[in-house]
């Protein structure tokens, strides 16, 4: 296609874009037809942006408020063309959006690639690089665009063969919006076919809320473009969320999710709801099946698409859901907000608070239903988003009990180590007389499952939850009880098993403690300032000694998090507990030499620290004492 251009220049692609194009051209997509969905999705976004900007500047519509997308083809020229009359681009926009990718998106994209075509294709939408999918089927891509509100002389032309560079020039373009012309590669001529294009649009883009038109008949070069009468709309062209639930098929919901979620997989669940009465709004919320790469990045885009009376307002309205539900995708369309809504208004409007509360409950109910009806899907959800959901009890006091019911943990009951036990499961298995939920935190499953703290629980057959995510100790500082039962850290304070200990057990413990008072005092003297207290343990059956945490002290996980973030960690000392029945403790009690007694005491103390997953303050001293003992034993 020849075009009269001015101020033509050739520019090089950003380095990462070159790598990306190489991947695209070598068929990163396992399903090539998805290029059309990506380009239509971009055109739909351009129309949404124009509608929004035209709220404040109606003149941007240039007398043409009838927004649409047109897809045409030319079999002889082997081209597919997409036209939209959305917001359009100026020269700077074209260079910025088509020659580079914002921030570190592409570098992150490349880093997350696995080499598996199917898996890698899922990343494309997330990184906003869908435009480049055109190069899967096209040997050359041309773009003709003019931004709404600029003159016809300010049109811009962009062209590239997907290699190292692209051309950009000024052109005359009478209409606002963007035209993309794909010059198909040899072997991709199947896409220059009306029936093929129609099927692709119906399959992937039927939910798009503005008309997508194809020519009824188009005879190659006989006509430059068909007249108005020859175009027909091939999609429903109505906002999917405004239709009754009974009229929307599962496949339509799934395709709509892929559009709003920039995903290639089906969602795990969705909730479509219309609220009428004091508040009037419609919501369509989705639970993704895969976590985005930037889930834990503070500046990552999050939130729902906001529409007011079906007019698009903003892409990431994060005021409608709490941060711990930032993975939820979807749309909210309100009749109770003004069309000129801004982020400042959103943050202050009491209507938003009411909607946020209702939408939050709706998401939690959706997750609860998923857990009950599709446990395997919920297991997948938990693997992807479990740690984010654990932020909930601290952020959302009103729904703390409901969130707690959605949490999953590893436990001593399940040798697989999977986080699959719910609190309801745990309470269904409690021992008679058990009025506590017992748990233990640590760095890894291997470390906690073998912890000496569990010995008395194994002996009595009491289940203990094993918490190994970095967030867990922080979580439990907010999650103090569930269903009336208090949470108890088995490594903290003086363990009291309540009714699970018989009166005979308690009496025997007291008597043993009295017989070891002398040993306890000797240990306090030997260990000095290293311990807060020394006492006889009721937790141990097999190990000689253990370290317990003071009731108000920070645990190991929280100390490590604070240290890693450069914050000052409050000083605390552990409680040293001994197992009076263990042979090593009996030998220690019988040791007459106080210097040797001190060395043995420090060795036991350091071993207890290692068993708890802590690092030694003076590893060299530990090694020296241990070597000294080994020499004595071998003499």
From TrEMBL:
Residues where ATP binds: 38, 42, 84, 89, 103-105, 126-131, 178, 343
**Gene Ontology CC annotation, any one:** cytoplasm
Q: Which Gene3D superfamilies does this entry report, sorted A to Z?
A: 3.30.230.80, 3.40.50.11260, Heat shock protein 90, C-terminal domain, Histidine kinase-like ATPase, C-terminal domain
Q: CDD domains of this UniProt entry?
A: HATPase_Hsp90-like (cd16927)
Report domain Histidine kinase/HSP90-like ATPase positions: 31-188
Which residues fall in a coiled-coil region? none
- Record-level Gene Ontology MF annotations: ATP binding; ATP hydrolysis activity; ATP-dependent protein folding chaperone; unfolded protein binding
> Could you tell me where this protein is found in the cell?
Cytoplasm
Where does the source fall among the domains of life?
Answer: Bacteria
Q: Does the keyword Cell membrane apply?
A: no
Keywords for this protein: ATP-binding, Chaperone, Cytoplasm, Nucleotide-binding, Stress response
Region of interest (C), ranges: 561-635
Q: Taking the first listed entry, what is the main subcellular location of this protein, grouped into a coarse class?
A: cytoplasm
Q: Where is this region: A?
A: 1-343
Family, similarity comment? Belongs to the heat shock protein 90 family.
Family matches, as NCBIfam families = PRK05218.1
Q: Per its UniProt record, what HAMAP family does this chain match?
A: HSP90 (MF_00505)
Per the entry, what this protein does is: Molecular chaperone. Has ATPase activity.
> What binding partners and quaternary form does the record give?
Homodimer.
User: What's the protein here called?
Assistant: Chaperone protein HtpG
* Source organism per UniProt: Stutzerimonas xanthomarina DSM 18231
Gene from which the chain derives = htpG
């Amino acid at each position: 296609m020849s075009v009269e251009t001015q101020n033509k220049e050739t520019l090089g692609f950003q380095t990462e874009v070159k790598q990306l194009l190489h991947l695209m051209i070598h068929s990163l997509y396992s399903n090539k037809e998805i290029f059309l969905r990506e380009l239509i999705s971009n055109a739909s976004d351009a129309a949404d942006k124009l509608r929004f900007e035209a709220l404040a500047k109606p003149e941007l519509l240039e007398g043409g408020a009838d927004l649409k997308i047109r897809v045409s083809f030319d079999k002889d020229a082997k081209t597919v063309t997409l036209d939209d009359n959305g917001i359009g681009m100026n020269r700077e926009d074209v260079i910025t959006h088509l020659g580079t990718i914002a921030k570190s998106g592409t570098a992150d994209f490349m880093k997350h690639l696995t080499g598996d075509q199917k898996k890698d294709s899922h990343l494309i939408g997330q990184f906003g690089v869908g435009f480049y999918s055109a190069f899967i089927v096209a040997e050359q891509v041309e773009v003709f665009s003019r931004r709404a509100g600029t003159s016809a002389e300010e049109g811009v032309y962009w062209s590239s063969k997907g290699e190292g560079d692209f051309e950009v020039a000024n052109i005359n373009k009478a209409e606002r919006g963007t035209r993309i012309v794909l010059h198909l590669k040899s072997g991709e001529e199947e896409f220059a076919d009306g029936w093929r294009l129609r099927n692709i649009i119906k399959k992937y883009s039927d939910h798009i809320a503005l008309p997508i038109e194809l020519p009824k008949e188009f005879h190659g070069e006989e006509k430059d473009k068909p007249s108005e009468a020859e175009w027909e709309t091939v999609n429903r062209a109505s906002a999917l969320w405004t239709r009754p639930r009974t009229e929307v098929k599962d496949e339509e919901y799934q395709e709509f999710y892929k559009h709003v979620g920039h995903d290639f997989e089906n969602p795990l669940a969705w909730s479509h709801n219309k609220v009428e009465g004091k508040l009037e709004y419609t919501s369509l919320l989705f639970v993704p099946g895969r976590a985005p790469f930037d889930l834990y990045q503070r500046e990552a885009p999050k939130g729902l698409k906001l529409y007011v009376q079906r007019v698009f307002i903003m892409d990431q309205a994060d005021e409608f859901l709490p941060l711990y539900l930032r993975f939820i995708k979807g749309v909210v369309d309100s009749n109770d907000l003004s069309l000129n809504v801004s982020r400042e208004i959103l943050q202050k409007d009491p209507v938003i608070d009411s909607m946020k509360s209702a939408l939050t409950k709706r998401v939690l109910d959706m997750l609860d239903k998923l857990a009950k009806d599709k446990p395997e899907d919920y297991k997948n959800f938990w693997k992807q988003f479990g740690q984010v959901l654990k932020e909930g009890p601290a952020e959302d006091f009103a729904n703390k009990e409901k969130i707690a019911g959605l949490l999953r943990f590893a436990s001593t009951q399940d040798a697989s180590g999977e986080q699959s036990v719910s609190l309801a499961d745990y309470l269904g298995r409690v021992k008679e007389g058990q009025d506590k939920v017992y748990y233990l935190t640590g760095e890894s499953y291997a470390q906690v499952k073998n912890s000496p703290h569990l010995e008395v629980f194994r002996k009595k057959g009491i289940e203990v939850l094993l918490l190994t995510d970095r967030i867990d100790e922080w979580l439990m500082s907010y999650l103090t009880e569930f269903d009336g039962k208090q949470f108890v850290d088995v490594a903290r304070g003086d363990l009291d098993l309540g009714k699970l200990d018989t009166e005979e057990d308690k009496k025997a413990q007291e008597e043993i403690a009295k017989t070891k008072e002398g040993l306890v005092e000797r240990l306090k003297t030997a260990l000095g300032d290293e311990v807060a207290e020394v006492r006889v343990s009721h937790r141990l059956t097999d190990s000689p000694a253990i370290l317990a945490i003071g009731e108000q002290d920070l645990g190991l996980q929280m100390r490590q998090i604070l240290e890693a973030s450069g914050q000052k960690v409050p000083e605390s000392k552990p409680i040293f507990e001994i197992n009076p029945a263990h042979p090593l403790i009996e030998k220690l009690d019988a040791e007459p030499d106080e210097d040797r007694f001190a060395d043995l005491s420090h060795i036991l103390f350091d071993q207890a620290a290692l068993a708890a997953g802590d690092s030694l303050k003076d590893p060299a001293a530990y090694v020296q004492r241990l070597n000294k003992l080994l020499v004595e034993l071998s003499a």
